[in-house]
Amino acid sequence: MGVFSSIKNFFVNSNDDSLDIEARPPIEKSSNERTVVFSESVNHVRYKSYALSIAISRIANAVSLCGFQTYIRGKPEKGDLWWRLNYEPNQNQNQTDFFYSLVHKMVYNSDGALVIQAKSGDLIVAESFTIEKYAFLPNVYSNIILPGGLSYQTKLKESDVIHLKYNNSKVKAIVDSVYEDYGKLLNDAIKNYKRGNAIKLKLLMDAQFDQFKEKDVLDEEGNVIGTEYDEILDDLFQKRFGAILSDKDSITPLEDGLTLSNVDATTGNTKSGAFTSRDITSIFDDIVNQVADAFLMPRGIFRGDVADNEGMRKSMIDDAVRPFIENIQTEINRKKYGKDEFYKGNKLKISTDLIYTKDPIAFANAAEAYLRIGVYCVNDILEKLGEEIIDEEWAWRHYVTKNYENINNAAEDIEKAVSNMMRALGRGEPSEKNST
């Protein structure tokens, strides 16, 4: 059963009820309970996820720009596989969405991404799967969950699937370990920023206010339920202080013996003593740089800088994108075609040239050189530029300039030129000595 053989429809709805989430009862507090609350450290994983998403998007976009060309007997062929890899991998995804899902799984899953082909021919990236690994037998894939919660109810052998694994499969674990330290620093910086810019007031209570402790508060039945001291403080903390801490103008009355004053502020991270988000930004920049380095991606491209774009783009393709390209190309060739078919010229070739040719001006010099030495014909160049080919016989011809002529042909041309020159001088045909 080959990788692109028809797969039977053993799909069932998968409703995962295995996750038991305990409902936590609300914590009840007395209205008179006034405590200082310390916030616990929170790991802001969304910053790390944001940086990883940038890396995955950059790589997936570059992969989708590549040219996926299939060959039959060494000649380009545009069949079903060509269409799916270049335009529509499946009915629910276009090429860009498909490769984003593929790269995302290759990065986030330590076991890589699993692609199977449905009976209709659609290429589908599995949401999750389990691998049974063997040394001298094919690996077995089971517990395959597809998009939409569909569960594939049979086991597949290694030859039945496309298994793509990033060569640096530990990159996610590396980013996680680095982020453990940076996450704590980022959390502290955010808390310091909020603390520095928060309004801090202190309530001064002198002996005059203590008189309210002597005044009881009764309920409807005449029972003592507290004192005016507690009642006033509850009203202050629950209602009146809310007006003071809001962003609107307000006036709040205070009883005799109560005074509000500001808490002395600590010095911020600027010359004026104010607190800014500069520390947060600096730490987040470090996180972004760490993620870019983990993917061997130039920091400038990761951030979208345009300075020295040509050099960074070349480094991006060679170091960050090519490992994914080589993985996809090798896996499809060995699973779809196999050794015997590959030697016959039946194969898939992924070209990164199209990433460069999106800029016609930058590609102009290279295109002229390729045309001059016979590597490309006119239609080859048009295809790489994304233009329509010319339906003329001459557009498929390959040319080689005189400077690159075969040495044997060049020797014959030289001999003819010498012979013509001798005749023109009236000396007849050149002798062997003269020609030498």
Number of domains: 2
Number of helices: 13
Averaged pLDDT, please? 76
Q: Largest sheet, if any?
A: 5 strands, antiparallel
Shape: elongated
Elements, N to C (H/E): EHEEHHEEEEEEEHEEEHEHHHEHHHHH
Sheet-strand content, in percent, reads 5-15%
Helix vs. strand class: alpha+beta
The count of DSSP E runs of length 2 or more, i.e. the number of strands, is: 15
Return Rg in Å: 36 Å
Q: What ranges have pLDDT less than 50 throughout 5 or more consecutive residues?
A: 4-43
* Percent range of helical residues: 40-55%
Q: N- to C-terminal separation?
A: 68 Å
Give a description of the structure.
The chain has 436 residues and is of the alpha+beta class. The protein has 2 domains: 1-13 and 40-197 and 276-353, no CATH class; 201-262, no CATH class. 44% of the residues lie in helices and 14% in strands. The chain contains 13 helices and 15 strands. The chain has helices at 45-65, 80-86, 95-108, 171-197, 228-245, 278-294, 299-303, 309-343, 353-357, 360-372, 378-384, 407-424, 432-435; strands at 11-13, 67-72, 75-77, 113-117, 123-125, 128-132, 140-146, 150-152, 156-157, 162-164, 201-205, 216-218, 224-227, 258-262, 347-351. The strands form 5 sheets. Strands 1, 6, 7, 8 and 9 form a 5-stranded antiparallel β-sheet that branches. Helix 1 crosses helix 6, helix 1 packs across helix 8 and helix 4 (171-197) packs antiparallel against helix 6 (278-294). The chain is elongated. The model is unreliable at 4-43 (pLDDT under 50).
